[in-house]
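Each lists chain and fold; for instance:
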Amino acid sequence: MAGVAFWGLVKPPRRPEPTGQFIDVDGLTVHYEILGDGPPAIAIHGAGGNLRDWTMGPAREMARTHRVLVMDRPGHGFSDRPAKDGERLSVQAGLLRKAALELGFEGAVLAGHSYGGSVSLTWALDAPETLSGLILLGAPSQVWEGGVDKIYAVTGNPVFGGFASSLLPRLISTSYVESAISGVFKPEAPPEQYGPRLGVELSLQPPSVQANAHDIRALKAQVRAMVPRYPGLDLPVELIHGSDDLSVPAPIHSDKLANQLPRLSAYQRIEGAGHMIHHTQTDALVTALTRLSPAS
């Protein structure tokens, strides 16, 4: 068992301290950070993550030319989750949109990665007038075959999911976490110390484990309802997707979405790239941001 530390066999993993500020939206707290100066841009993180996924690298590159807002999605990091319908994309998008507008990010370019891309797509469909452009990075946008992984089925179960979500963080090993991080980046390599810099303990807090499971379990049905709305999206959109993305395969999602959008600005399908393209292909993100920014 050398080199394998089991978190929380005595107690759950310790939660890191917040790195940003807080804003109240409809009685709920949203945790956010603002970086840089210039035209407004917003970035939304994916499943099982928090705003640190952006601030450790990609958002800082964006902030060289833009004022960038990053937020923890409801129920993740340090943002509150609504007691009802917190797994709904429209609810998450609505809360983040209200926070962004109150913070002065009207007319921003919105970038969303993975599940955060689905939230961003919902935001754009519901309120395109609040944005100047949309960037989707490895985002689920189409109905796929099959269900969810067993771990989400268990931790998101309405009967015993709370117990499972409390137990899971006490059993997961550091080697398992490292393997999971490596898997989501494949075939590319994660940045050095990605887990510690992300504050992976935040993702292993029982409420976040359960929130993430509910998000994933509810995603497919919501995407199904969104698909017919895509031809009416009156907003310039850029798609960025890795050809070797194993988490959200490009042929199922962005390849199809590219033909459904009336104002597709560009589709960067990057050969040999995996799922975490905002980290491994940051130049593509910055290029898209530059094209869509009104000041460009």
Q: What stands out?
A: The longest strand covers residues 28-35. The two ends are 54 Å apart (CA to CA). The longest helix spans residues 206-226.
